[in-house]
Fold each of these.
Amino acid sequence: MVLYNLAFYFFSLITLASASVVVFSKNIVHSAFALLFTFFGVAGLYVLMMADFLAITQILIYIGGIMVLILFGVMLTNRTIDVQIRTGSIQTFPAMLIVAALAGTLVGIFWSTDWKISPTAIGFEKTAPEIGKMLLTNYLLPFEIASIVLLVALIGAAMIARREKKA
Amino acid sequence: MVEIQSYLILSAITFIIGVVGVLARRNAIIVFMSIELMLNSVNLTLVAFSAYLGDTTGQMLVFFVMTVAAAEAAVGLAIVIALFRNKQTVNIDDINILKW
């Protein structure tokens, strides 16, 4: 159990530290690579919660797919190498106000609510068969809609990013 | 044993870091990455509840959130690239032609 706690704090530290780097780093390439470590930390936390299939999916989709897309975006739009230090000096105060209110609300609710959790040990024996069964029975319609969403996004992304021919 | 509150507060802090990124940074791609951060923190909450309640429905929802995140990544980056091609900037303060 001590090992479990240590692993939890380790992955939490990775997640939080790299998330801070994502948001506060001046260099956008550093941000992109820090985001990779955030995804990795979250995947580790999934493993700690016995969501093995989700952890693998997280690594495949986020680190393998979305990170590559974001890096492409960074490289394609980072031609202006100048430092963009102008991080919204106008709206800093209202932004901090909103963030403080949100932080207080979220942490307060999460901390003070008496969550009705199961007294047994956390996690499942195996998640992949369960998820597969649910995807093909109770959640069949959302599953099909998700595939249509992906198809539409694929076509839309290709159409938006395409360089238009001179007519 | 780690309490569920630890996971929840961890995800709350991650979410708040994401909100700071969306509100305070002016680079469209950083805003974009902050949104991914927020989606991830919500997924963490769902998985935590799923694990501590002994119910796999939460993990199901995470799959659909991931689907939407992937679609959003593809379309969002396409929009950013199209914007950069037309206006030579990804600073969201300079993208104001819909403002009056």
Amino acid sequence: MKLPVTVIGGYLGAGKTTLINHLLRNANGLRLAVLVNEFGELAIDEDLIEAVDDSLISISGGCVCCAFGNDMIGALEDIRDAEPGFNHVLLEASGVALPGSIMTTVSLVHGLRPDATVVLADAEQIRRNANNKFLSDTIQHQLEQADSLLVTKADLITSEQLADVTKWLKSRVPLARIIPVERGQVPLDAIIGALPLPARGIPPSNSPHSDFASAVLRPDGPVDAEALAEKLAADPTVTRAKGYVSQGNRLALIHVVGNRHAVEEAEGKHEIGVVCIGLKHEFSSQRIEDLAVQSMSAALVHKEASA
Amino acid sequence: MSGTTVYSARKIITMNPNRPVVSHVAVRDGRILGAGTLDELAGWGEYQLDDRFADKVIMPGLIEGHAHSMEGALWSFTYVGWFDRMDPDGKIWPGVKSIDDVVVRLSETEKKMSDPDAPLLGWGLDPIYMDNVRMTRADLDRVSTTRPVGIMHASGHILNVNTKGLELAGLFKTGNNHPGIPLASDGLPTGELKSPEIMMPAGKHVGMDRAFLAADEMGLRNYGRLCVRAGVTTSSDLGQQLNDDLVALFDKVTGEETYPVCLVAFRINLGVSPKELVDYTLSLTEKSTDRLELGKIKVVADGSIQGFSARMLWPGYYNGAPNGLWYIAPDQLAEIYERALAAGVQVHTHTNGDEATQLTIETLEAALRKHPDFDHRFTLQHCQLASEAQFRKMGRLGMCVNLFANHHFYWGDEHYALTVGPERAERMNACRAALDAGVPMTIHSDAPVTPLGPLFTAGSAATRLTSSGRTQGEVQRINLDEALYAVTMGAAITMKMDDRIGSIEIGKRADFAVLEDDPTEAAPETLKDVRIWGTVQGGRIFEAATI
């Protein structure tokens, strides 16, 4: 399987560092590799650091962090070839970088799979930055390139203000999945996908405190994996989906993050099932099950979990 | 007391306004004991008269304020540019005038290679002069189908690779969907790769590996030899990711007894946070030596004009291309400026587009309110499109500028027709406006982007001729004296080294350019043809013919 890469973008102060620290702290056994942009501004929480060796920081749980300077490709290849391997790469873009361009580079590196471009927007600052005469076009490009758009520091504004900024963002980027985030705390599976959850024995994010709801699709027959992935990616209520479906005599692994989808041929035996998650207030398990049905020749879809 | 040598010369141009021309210069301990008549210098006591330069013209060693020592390393690869170019051995490589010539030149290199899998890399291709012909992978397949072959264009914005190179990069397939990967009618890539995010991953398969991008000992030595041939005694190396290892490398090579040039190595703003950048650069200051000046920062604010990545003010690019890219976040630029001003560290900032220039001016003005500094000499590098209003502001804020004066020759016609259009092309690299606004100014080659050659650059500033022979913006021309001052004292001032170099006067380092012809008698058009015998650096004599 190819090593998935998530590019994390957004202007300075949007909360990239907080988010990455949160993901490292809650990696749930995943080995994450964090690549820091050329300005080396990422500060890993000290209590997470196990060792610092030159440019490589070792982090508890088998994660690492390194700065890639002007050789991003080389750093990505080093991570790809590391033993033991990593489960996921988080690549932190600089504050003015266009994350879509970075993802294009990632897509050219053999053995890596672009998983998602996640762009952070500071709920309080985003409109000010978007109005700054030097920054407005850069901010707009960043927003447009997001597969998932996280509105950070949502806890610092009122719910009316949050609704207001969400509306503004939707007017700027109508297709983006917009996810509000408080104190950088977004579930791992909504961003980098510690999925499929049932196989890992970790319950989906259905706790009453979570903003997210999930459902598992279990189509019991062959599915057009590409069509299903495309439909899930086109559905604005699906934040993320991942899992195995049957292609007749073989399996396919579906990845969906926001607007982006990918289908890989799967090796080995896996339980069939696609975990889908979305924001609780708009997520409908019935709706995505219908999508699955549309992607099957003839099959039943079992309802496994719901919001 | 060590000995004093007095050199006679046909003429000594000093750049010291008190005595602009003298007949003799006395050197003791690598420094200038005095410049004047033999009688005057005899007053210092015993001396040895050296007449070896009696028929030469001596001027202050030329100073290159914006170049990269990578120029020295590039000669490990094959030159395929349009213009004749001299390598560190003094060999002149004739410019190649067609794709067929390029193939022939690369094939000659190919025949001499022993490892059948080793990549072959050429550099300097400039199709602008070949009616913008597009090179394809088929062209480079004529060089080899079994080894990866690549060519980096002179602009640095396009890389051509052969089929093998595409295969190794994983691009030899249909379905590549990226504006930087043009496709032929068969759906396969043409072999032309544009934009850094495409070129870098593919480039490593054709020889643009990590070593290609970093400094090494041989490259630094070769760069020193190129400096002697160009009459240069001090050169910036504008933008290295300096760390302790790299500083040790620079210290070792420049410390060699015969190293012929003083390098001013700037720490570029990559790989470190603003705080680390300023703290580390400050800590390097005390590691400076006679031939290695440290403790200065280079920041890159935007991209390039011909790559359409420079940040432009309204109305933007003449051909309608979208605005370019920021290479640094404005808030980060502000943090670097504030910390550097507080620490007394000088910053040189690359700006090409006028919006980038505007950002630096506004950012510095705000930072100066917090940390006033009456002699910061923060310098804008390239600053190609600055308007008169921007120069005025720069002058009042105490900024300096290093303009890319020979750009008119190499790409002026392109700027006129395509990138910025006629009106702004005429004010590009406005040397006259900078001087009139009281902005201390130098001019540069940005080697290896254009060949190292301050006399050529100075001539370009005086003529503003394009390669097609048009004078582009005649009002912005400067006279020869001003141009020669710019490549000596001007550069010294922008690097805060004018107390030590830039003129031939008492107390300064004995750095001379030794010339066969008198540059002050040349016409602006013929300044580039002034023959260079060699240099004297820190009192040591380096002849170009034997370097």
